[in-house]
Amino acid sequence: MNTKLVTIILCAATLALIGTGAERACGDELDEATKARIAKAEAGPAMIDVSKYPQQIRDDYEPFSQKCAQCHKLSRPINSDYVLPDEWGRYIKRMMYKPGSGINATDGKKIYEFLVYDSSVRRKTDLDAKLKTLSPEERAKAEKTIKEVVDKIKQ
User: Fold this and answer.
1) Contact 111, 96 (CB under 8 A)
2) Residue 118: what are its φ and ψ, rounded to 5°?
3) Which of 17, 70, 103, 108 has the most CB atoms at less than 10 Å from its CB?
4) Do 145 and 85 form a contact (C-beta atoms < 8 A)?
C-alpha cells in the first residue's frame, strides 16, 4: 500500500473518531477512584427542575443541557461532587478544550453561571459543607463569586 493512501485512510479514520467522541474515551485513562465518582454521578438523576429558577438561569440551562450532553451523560455534572465556583470553572474550561464539545466562551459563561447558581440553591447543603473545609481566604473568595453570580441574575 502506498504512503499517500495510508495517510488518507488514517486521516479519514481520525475524522470519523473525532465525530463520535471515541478519541476522548481512548485518550482519557482514569484512575479507579475517578471512575467510581463518575459512575456514582451518572447513576443519579439526569434532569433538574429549573421551573422556579430566575429566567436567566432557566435560559442558561439550555446550553448546559445541550452542550454537556454531547460528550457525557447530563447526570455527570448534575450529580458530581463539584459545587464550588473554582471547581466549576476548571471543569468547564477542561470541557471547552475537548474536541467536539462545541462550548465557546459565551456558552462556557452561561454554563458556569448556571452551575454556580444551581449549586447555591439545589445543592446548598453540599456547598456549605465544602465551604467549611476551605481556608478563610478561599471561603471568602468562593462566597464573593457566588454572591456576584446571584446578584447579577437578580438584576
Assistant:
1) no
2) -60, -40
3) 103
4) yes
Environment class of 102 (CB within 10 Å of its CB; exposed 0-12, middle 13-18, buried 19+): middle
Cβ neighbors of 73 (< 8 A, separation 6 or more) are 42, 46
For the chain, the first-to-last Cα distance in angstroms comes to 65
Taking alpha carbons only, the member of 8, 121, 112 closest to residue 63 is 112
The three cell numbers of residue 4 are 499517500
Query: Which amino acid would we find at residue 43?
Result: A
Tell me the pTM: 0.79
Could you tell me the three cell numbers for 100? Answer: 467536539
CB 77 within 8 A of CB 112: no
CA distance 140 to 83: 15
Residue 5 to residue 2: CA distance in whole angstroms: 6
Summarize pLDDT for 4-48 with one digit per residue, the tens: 543 444 444 433 333 434 334 334 578 999 898 889 889 989 999
